[in-house]
Amino acid sequence: MILHLDMDCFFAQVEERENPRFKGKPLVVGADPKSGKGRGVVSTCNYEARKFGIQSGMAISKAYKSCSQATYLPVNKELYSRVSENIFRIVEGVSKIYERVSFDEAYIDLSKVVKNYKEAEKIGESLKKLIFRQENLTCSVGIGENKMVAKIASEEDKPDGLTVIKPSQTLKFISKKPIRDIPGIGPKTENKLEKLLGRSNLKIKDLKALSKKQLIDEFGKKGEDTYFKARGKDRSKVGSENKTKSLGREVTFDENTTDPEEIIYTFKNISKEVSGLAEIEKRKIKTVVVVCRFEEFDTYTRQISFDPVQPTEELIYKKGIKLLLRLFLKKARPVRLLGVRVLFG
Prior knowledge:
By secondary structure, this protein is of the alpha+beta class.
């Protein structure tokens, strides 16, 4: 029995707690669209802002066009880090077997804590109440027979929800969910699966039409993993060995650009964003990865590795900008998307 804890729009909710005047109004955390040329990306936003189509990773300039009346705040990583530590002290009181995915998300193994799903639900309710009482923040909780089911369940009733999926309900629950709901399936994998099946808008149940051999031939080990997950099986365990291996941010320009100033400024902003997220994780990084997508949608990645060090904005920017400039100068074409990712040591 696995519980997935996901804080609701964490950064924005913390800001609302600190400044009640923001509640009920669109709020975006990430950058100030009125500074400089309004570059940077959305780190997170509250549900009022999401009604205008704003979402994490969106260019601040695009968010501002969608909702100019929203309040725009910078990322306060020190504040979020302190609140995150408080939340995880509460988590440790529930079970010592847990996996911290990020500063606002975790998997908790309840298998040795409770005897049945009714008891697991009570644990979920208790956890939600403790977090709200001590931190005045809401979270969404999903409980299922494995990590994948628990994570999908936590998205079922946001915000402030609690969803329990018993083993007998698993296949029916996941069957009509989009394949992107399966952890590990991103845009590229989705595109390949659509080509394999000859149609789009795939649901998890559609993947059963592909044999294990087909999936392994196409995706290797990940294909075998997808085969089992399409059938509600997730063999990954909850524990420190499953810590997040990397994190990053991407931003898509409103219009393809060859402007070096705009490209460098944007790259610096997302480097700052990634450094803040990495510092909150309190882990060393060993690799910086740069992603650059050009106007024809062809995407290139470059990376540099080094002895594990503490992440800083300066380090990530200096390591990454050299890779980006070499790539940009070599291709000399309009840029559509930029991304920065770090791998933990």
